[in-house]
Amino acid sequence: QHLALVISEKDNGIYDAMNKGIEKATGKYIGFINADDFYNEGALCHAIEIMKANEYDIIYGNMFMVDVETLEVKGVRRPKHWKLNIDMNLSHPATFVKSSVHKINLFDLNYKIAADYDLMLKLKKNKCTFHYIDKNISSMRNGGVSVRNIKLANKEAKIIRIKRNGILFSLVASMYLAMRRIIKA
């Protein structure tokens, strides 16, 4: 409801700034919203009810994709954490991580675009509990950093899949993703 702390200082990119926020956070859960994103009406209240009633490590929901020019909803991302081995489908503006988990699992600054994917896959591999809310938590205008730098995003995702799942699984996932792109085209 009220901002308790605002810090404006030089950082080494978005994930460094987010790590600084994690280290300063005092709440039970941490969520990030970017400059072009916003929480949908009533979504935070619903998420907070679930946070109060349960002890999940990660709570996540759907996210509207909004056209940057017309502000028209172009689609809804309905993520499933069990698909993380293949690709990042959770959206951090629609994800809340328990502070006690986040404080010992910061974003890896070696990744410029896909550190959120690395973190979510790491938390999944570490058996953190995920809970899906079938609600539209946030909205994101299309054209963000990962979309504008798709080659780097894909390269980092491939490196993360190899690191977290091994080379064989990463090859299978890469073939699956390539086939999915061909079928969509």
TrEMBL record:
**What terms describe the molecular function in GO for this protein?**
transferase activity
Keyword annotations: Transferase
According to the entry, every stretch annotated as the Glycosyltransferase 2-like domain falls at: 6-84
A single Pfam family it belongs to is Glycos_transf_2
Among SUPFAM superfamilies, the record links this protein to: Nucleotide-diphospho-sugar transferases
Q: Which residues form a coiled coil?
A: none
For this protein, the record's InterPro entries field holds: Glyco_trans_2-like, Nucleotide-diphossugar_trans
Whether Transmembrane helix counts among this entry's keywords is no
Q: Which Gene3D superfamilies match?
A: Spore Coat Polysaccharide Biosynthesis Protein SpsA, Chain A
> What is this protein's name?
Glycosyltransferase
